[in-house]
Amino acid sequence: MIQSPLKDSRMSTKMLLLLVSFNFYAYATSPPIINITIEADIYDYTQEILAGKSPLEIDDFSGEHAQRDVIEVILVQQALALGGIELNFQFTTGHYDSRNIRLLQQGLLLINFDSMWLSSVERLQEDIYISDPLIRKGEYWAGLYTSVEKVNTLKINSLADLQQLTITSNKHWPVDWETLSKIKPKKLIHQEEWVSMAKLVSLGWIDIMLAPFTHSKPFSYQGEQYKIMAIEGVKIALNDSRHIIVSKKHPYGERTFNALQKGLKILRKRGTITKAYQQSGFFNEQVKNWHIINAEMLND
């Protein structure tokens, strides 16, 4: 269940450790409060879809800000409940993309609600559990997003066109980074945070970034100090599966993982996972026939 977020986004490792320890001992009398770190905008967008409801009540996953990572916050909580575990989640908002893996490895974070590429995490199996896929291999298409000013002027019909442009991504996202590196753009620029990428692209300082498709045209993302839009007619294939990861070192890690696996199987059988991604626009029929700009590289 979602609770209000903590305001201090700079929670220290020591404080996280104390909270983990406190909640472990408190579980003897009541369901534990589990602290989850989450991007501030993702938390806010999730509240829009929930509209005061419990995540377990959500059956319609559509909405203006119903993007992939928002939908997964809800799906994971549904899976855990269906799997038979009762946890109360308290969210700490901030910029945690680059920290969460380390916190999971240390046992200071129980679970990451944002799915991760298998190729990014399979080497970490000494410290983490890896769930069944939420997004299976071959299901992930990304749009090429640019600024409002450039969306109608940038023409990308081939790899050669894309190679003339600057692109930003995160080198710690191996699937994205490897895919873009193979394309050999004019310049590939590392940024740690997604929001920082969006702002740089929105300002026109960098031409392109990758992002999932939203639920309806014009495909766009908008937040504080940025707005980016997808270039019509082209998409990129990111050929890997995405999974939820759970810490093996957290006191509730094994029990949480077992419940998650059970719940994901139920959601898959019911068709809820596919429906959620379809309603959000992530699985998007509107781009089914768009040109795959890197199609010739998929078998490399």
UniProtKB/TrEMBL annotation:
SUPFAM superfamilies: Periplasmic binding protein-like II (SSF53850)
Organism of this sequence: Colwellia asteriadis
Protein name: Solute-binding protein family 3/N-terminal domain-containing protein
